[in-house]
Amino acid sequence: MPFWRGLFLGFFLATGLVGFGLYYTVSRGVTVTVDQGMVARAVGAQVEAQARFFLPEMLAGFKEQLTAQVTREMAKNNNMEIAFGSLQIPLPPQTTRQIDQYVVQAVQQTLVVYLQSLNTEQLVARMGQIAGTQARAILARKLVGQTLSFRPYTWLTVPIHVVVQNGAGGSGGDILPAGKGWPRDLAKKSP
User: Fold this and answer.
1) pLDDT by residue (tens digit) across 118-158?
2) Residues 67, 85: Cα–Cα separation, whole Å
3) How far is residue 82's CA from residue 96's CA, in Å, rounded to a whole number?
4) pTM of the predicted structure, to 2 decimals
5) Plot region of 33 (φ>0 → left; ψ -120 to 50 → alpha; else → beta)
6) How distant, in Å, are the alpha carbons of 72, 75, 100, 166 from that of 90?
């Protein structure tokens, strides 16, 4: 008999503790902390990696597109003339084609020189920095002070409170409560 009493006591005690924990969780909710700095760095690093991979291909496509566009525009301009005062002398088609080829070659050479002088690493770093800044702004605007509802069952709703930490990787940064923080406060202070 003491075995059954102990078993029932243990069962009811465990059920009571689980019930209390469930009640506490449902009534108070769960707090989730999102670190803006960590998310911004991760987004920036991912954008940089993608930009390093795709930028050479994009620049080559840009060169081809611009060359094709210049070629199309030059083809529209078949009526080249030399003007001497009021006298206009049309250029022969062969000369017009040579001028077109010269312009297209000059554009291609200019693009090659420009693209070779372009500091792609600096461009990639800037793209990552912009993406990280935008991620911070979106987190601050969309998540600060949000309370989400998690429904594991139709009869059970657990509130999830989102706290955005404005820190450097979770090492002692400022915690932004609902409605406060970057960039919203900066926008209020600016003229």
Assistant:
1) 888 888 999 999 999 999 888 888 887 788 888 888 877 88
2) 34
3) 11
4) 0.57
5) beta
6) 20, 16, 15, 69
